[in-house]
Design goal:
single chain, alpha/beta, GMP Synthetase, Chain A, domain 3, seven-stranded mixed β-sheet, 16 helices, 25% strand, globular
Amino acid sequence: MDTAALRHTSAPALGSWPARRARIAPGSPALVAGERTVTYAELADRTARLANVLAERGVRPGDRVAYLGVNAISVFETYFAAWLLGAIVAPLNYRLAAAEIRYMLEDSGSSLLVHSADTDALVAATGPAVPVLKVGPEYEDAVAATEPLVDPPAVTLDDPAILLYTSGTTGRPKAAVLTHGNLTWNTINQLAHVDVLSTDRALCISPLFHCVGLGQVTLPTLFKGGCVEPLASFDAGAVLARIGEVGVTSFSAVPTMLQMMVEHPSWETSTLDTLHTVLYGGSPVQERVARAWLDRGVQVQQGYGMTEASPGVYMVPRGAAQLSGAGNRPVSVGVPHFATEVAMFRDGERVPVGPEPAELLVRGPHVFAGYWNRPEESAAAFVDGEWFRTGDVLRVAADGWADVVDRVKDVIISGGENIYPAEVEAVLVQLDAVADAAVVAVPDERWGEVGAAYVQLREGAELSEEDLRSHLQAHLARYKIPKYLVPTDALPRNATGKVRRVELRARAADDFAGERPR
C-alpha cells in the first residue's frame, strides 16, 4: 500500500474498541442471534481470544483479514479481533462469483480468510491461496483453547481499519480504505442526528460487507452500549414480527426493504410501537411508502452518503415536518452531518453550494483515506487534494436542505439538454400501479442519447403505455420523456438493493439496437 498517496485525517482519541464499550455495562447484551446472547464482557473476552488465534496464524499489524459470510456474531468478533491486532478487515460479498472473490483476496493481499458454513461451496470454488479459518467447531475450539491477548499493539485513528470494495459498476472493483478515525467520526455524526441509548435494540439487516450495514445504526448502537441483532437475510414478514417480539428500536435499510414491509400482509397488524429510528439510503423512498410508515407513527429518515464517507454526508433530521423551512420535501436528503463540509464542482472549479445542480464535493474527518494500492485514482478522486468528488449531482436550497438530482455518469444528454433519470423515475413511481422504474441512456442517431424507461408494475396491476405517457407529459418537459417505455418483471439490483444501471444500459443497447440506423 502506498500510504503516501492516501489522504489521512486526524481526530482526538476516543479510546480502544471494543474494550471501552465493554466497560459501559459488562453484563448488558451486546449481540443477539437466535437463542444466543453475547454480553459486552463476553464479547471483549472472545475478541481478545480470537485476536490471539489470528496472531498465532501469522496475522500482524497492517495485515488484511478477509471475511466471507452472512451477518452473524462471528462477523463482529472477527472485525474487532483484527482491529485489536492492528490488522485491516476485508469483508467480501458472499453473493459474488468465485472469480470475483479470488480477485478481491488477491487485490487486498489478505493473509487469512475467515468464512462461515453458508459459503462452503463458494470457498471451495474459489480455491483461495491463503489459510482459511471456518466458523464452527474449529473456530469455537480455537477461541476456547487460547488465552486472551493482553498486550495489543498501538493502533491510532489514522491507521486503516477496513477495505470496503465498491460495487464495481465500471471495471474492476476497488477498495476504499476507511481508517479507525473515519469510522469513529461517522459514528459521532450519526449520534448527532439520531438518539441512541444503551437500552436500544437494533436490527442489523443490511449486509456487514457494506458501509450502510456497518455505519448507519450498528456501530453507533454498540458505541452507546446497546444491543445489536444481526440477521442473516432479509425477510419482510420476519422483520416485522421481530420488531414486536423483542421491542426493536432501530434499523437501517434500503428503500426496497421499506416498501416490501409496507406491502406485506402482516403490515397493518404488526406492532411498531418501540421503533424510534428507521434510516434508509441509496435512493429516495416512494412518497406513498414514507407516508405509510408515518401513518404507523414512524418517521423514516433518509440519509445520503457513499462508501468513501463511511458513509454519512446528509440526513433528514428527526421531526423534519415540524422544522422551520423543511416544508414539503419528501425526497430531500436533509442537511449535512455534524462534522461534514460540502461544496460543489462546476466547470472545473470548486464553488459554494447552491440551487443550480452541480457535482457535490465533501470533506471531513469521516471521508476516506483513498483507494487501496491505487495512488493515481486516489489523487484523482479529490479536488485541491482534500475535497472528495462524489460523482453525484445535487441542488441545495438557501436553508441548506439538499436534493440528489442524479449521478454524473447517469445523466442523459439529449440534443444538448441534460436529463436526470432520477427526476423521471420519481414521476413514474407517483402512479400507484408502478412498483419501481429505472431510466437509462440509449444512443440515438438524431439526439445523441435518448431515455429508455424500464417500468415494473405491481402484481396484478395494469397500465397502458398511453397512460404512462400521458402521466409523464403532465409532469415533465417533452424532451425529458423517455423515447422507450419497457415493462419488466424486475429490475437488476446489487447486494444492497441499488439498480445495476450498467447491466440495464447493456440490456437497453441490445433491446433497441435494431431501431437505430447503422
